[in-house]
Amino acid sequence: MKILFKGGRVVSPQDNINEIKDIALVDKKIVLNPSNIKYDRTIDCKGCVITCGLIDVHVHFRDPGFEYKEDIYSVAEAAARGGITTIVGMPNVKPAVDNKTVVRYILDKGKETAVNVLTSGSATKGNGGETLAEIGEMMLEGICAVSDDGFPIQDASLMRRVLEYTKNFNLPFMAHSEDKSLTKDAQMNEGYNATLLGLRPWPRQAEELMIARNIMLASLTGCHVHFQHVTTKMGVDLIKLGKKYGIPITAETCPQYFTLTDDACLDYNTNAKCCPPLRTKDDIRAIIKGLKNGIIDIIATDHAPHALEEKELEFQGASFGMVGLETALGLCLEQVYKNKFSLEDIVEKFIVNPAKLIGSKQGAFSTQELGDLIVFDPKVEWTVDVNKFASKSKNSPFDGMTLHGKLKLTVVKGEICFEDA
Amino acid sequence: MGLISKNLIDLKSTPKSDINLIIDTAFTQKEILSRSVKKVPILKGKSVCTMFIENSTRTKNSFETACKILGADVIGFSKTGSSINKGESYKDTLLTLEAMGVDLFIIRHFASGSSDFAAKTVKSKIVNAGDGMHAHPTQALLDMMTLIEHRGSIEGMTVLILGDVYHSRVARSNIWGLNKLGAKVRICAPMTLLPAEINSFPCEVYTDLREAVKGVDAINILRIQLERMNAGYFSSIYEYNRFYGIDTDIFKSVPKDTLILHPGPINRGVEISSAIADGPNSVIVNQVTNGLAIRMAILYLMLQGENR
Predict the structure, then answer these.
(1) B199 and chain A in contact, CB less than 8 A
(2) In chain A, which residue's Cα lies nearest the Cα of B11?
(3) B16-135+288-303, which class in CATH?
């Protein structure tokens, strides 16, 4: 199969390309300077942008253990429909990803799907936060990172050992930073809205304290700590300080944290309940600024599917999290449309930097083995409709929102796996 | 003339005219309570469910008595021994009872937002009888009725809400209601019991009781739950009483005709001394009677009156 992508703007900083040019897919490989051969198909990409596929380093597969929410097949399909060609699973499934057998299960099942499925491994056995998991065994089996997502390690001494041990196997540590002693029963961001709604408050300091601690422990151990889902202004400032000291840290945020404030929880909207919680306008400004100036390196989704019955509840009974794979690109491009981000920012934060974090070759066309690319029109207006999601779960606070910038086509491993009708 | 609101969820979203109509109607209904035969079956054939998923004695009895006086049929529902304990979801419980023809739900629930949830789930009317830390509108209405009964009007009054504001749905409802009727609201509590950004609400915030009571017309004393002590919100009953208890000592700095309210049940010797609770300024017992009248008024207006 030979496909010519004609007349699109190709943006790939790692290949030093940022211009309108043709590129081709020939025998599953990207050809950056296509020759004048006969193509099976020519796709008109005029007005569109072509990049490597998005790499999402923070996804909850829910498989094994919670397949009623999502499974590896459905999460992969949702990713493809969102322009995300590589997904990294979090270890808080059941059984936990704390041993090589579960790693193998996920990677093997992932190979049956259209996208690149990777996984992190749990830092501790059973995500219990008490004893070290067999990180070396999991490394040999193919994990790309270690994480405590969902079950933040509270004990600083154990965290030190975890980081030393993680560094020992040359893996990055993806940290969910939350001091649980400050968030008992907490439901939403501490502030006016929480008081108004009578919901237990989740103070920003619970996140910032743990970011501070984990920066210190990254300094102590030399392990690369990657801060997941950063949501607050001071969190950004702490990371800036840590980087200034030369401590090996990176950080991510998610589209919801630069799009929504805790106003989204008014009306007790359980789809806006997530962990960490949605914050304030000041935080959004700081997050956007942090992305612009490189303090925050990565955009990821924290795609967290939950079944309807886990959200159609009283707010305090509802599960934390929202799906994100099928809205992330649109939410990023909306910021481009509003001139908050450039296209280059999105490519750097959602392709180049995530690839570096997990050691993937898919962040540049010239290093890709089989071709991963996406084509999107940055100006097309569309409306989010959860009923069209491929994800098994529909828990999105963005349902009904109008966005600018729409995916047209996704190629993974050299094959078209999604094409907008 | 009827209510604008279909449901009574909280006072923030209830128009001032509805608040006035409910209180005015309650004064009329109160007359019924002084009759020897307390029965006006104007709600005959109406089906009311008192859904008390969180325990309550006075509010539940008050609502059920109101239903009985007005002749409505009552389905009682409490968490113990119910389908909720068998793992049925709140949503399914509501849908099941609605299917039995319930015209109006009276809901007490431990989760904030549960009445709002019910209003989105069923077509029946909803009266919030207390949801988590969010709202307890009938309590605030009866508090305001009691103030009006003794002062003629709330306009221009200074009302102090004292105690565990952090956990209190009563405080949250009173702040909105009192402001709508023109009162100046003060809040006083130790900092551990003040919720986030309470300064942004329409009230003055104090931590020093002696400052807070200066020139007040009424003090609404909140119940302090003793289990808050173990959770670190205050150190001891002794110290709480010393700094935030209303007793004859602090009463020396309070205007002579200050009204004392308490939503009950009271902890004598903790947030209020017996001398004050039983003293001439206390209207705590009136509150209970007015509570019945307020609930009769709400049921009458919501089930018999036409929505505007």
Answers:
(1) no
(2) A196
(3) alpha beta
